[in-house]
Amino acid sequence: MVDKMRDVVSARQSLLSSASDFLARHDNVVRIGLSPLVSVDFSRAMLARATQHDLELVLTEMNKADIYPALQSGTIDFGLCPSPQVSTNLRSTKIYSEPLFVVSDQLNAHEFDSFPLTDLADRKILLVPDDCGLSDTVRFLFQNQKLKLHAYEGRALAYHVLEHWAHLGIGTTILPASQVTKPEFACPLGATVDNIVSIKFEAHWMASQEQRTSFNTIMSCLGVPTG
Asked: Do residues 98 and 177 make contact, with C-beta atoms less than 8 angstroms apart?
């Protein structure tokens, strides 16, 4: 009987040890849903900080519309996408912002410090499908300035296609600076003469993520001050 009890205690200790090891490994693995709009520079810095803190980031490219369902289902731990993410039960914080650029074959970047949003009112605007987040941002800009958006009937499936179509003269598009590959055909978008328009990016997560021991470290990897 004593030997059996020792075996039970030993098995229990082994199970607890294995569970502890699993949880420790799990806590250092962070699954991130990443909008394709997030800049390579931001991703590079985030991955470098994660390596320093011994965190393993598992990235999955996701449109903005897919991030909230993935957070709810537990498919991902954090989602990074353009703001805002419309939800009442998500925790969020800004991670960075970057200027928006107008891209057109009729644009000589050397002639302008910025391109006024009001001058786009009569132009055909090239967009991607609504679920990515960029089209929502563009629509909000026009609505905020009470301008009519003349959207091109077709849709591109990638940001580089928007840029190519703009170079072909199909229309004009608006892209974050990090997505522009030919700056000679691009110019910062200005809400006013002295006010360059930016697109903001946020990190989102469910409240349960704040219970993990690595939460503050994850925030640091995202460049968020933890106090």
From this structure: yes
Q: Are 82 and 199 in contact (CB under 8 A)?
A: yes
Rounded to two decimals, the pTM is 0.84
The structure tokens listed for 39 are: 């800049």
Query: How many other CB atoms sit within 10 Å of the CB of residue 56?
Result: 11
Q: CA 189 to CA 197: how far, in whole Å?
A: 6
C-beta atoms surrounding 85 within 10 Å: 18
| pLDDT confidence bin for 10, thresholds 50/70/90 | low
2-95+201-221 and 97-199 share one CATH topology?
yes
Whether residue 111 is predicted with pLDDT greater than 70 in this model: the reply is no
What does CATH list as the number for 2-95+201-221?
3.40.190.10
* Nearest in space to 98 (alpha carbons), one of 39, 185, 11, 30: 39
Give yes or no for residue 5 having a pLDDT over 50: yes
Average pLDDT, rounded, for the chain: 87
pLDDT at 21 over 70: no
CATH class belonging to 97-199: alpha beta
d(CA 155, CA 187): 22
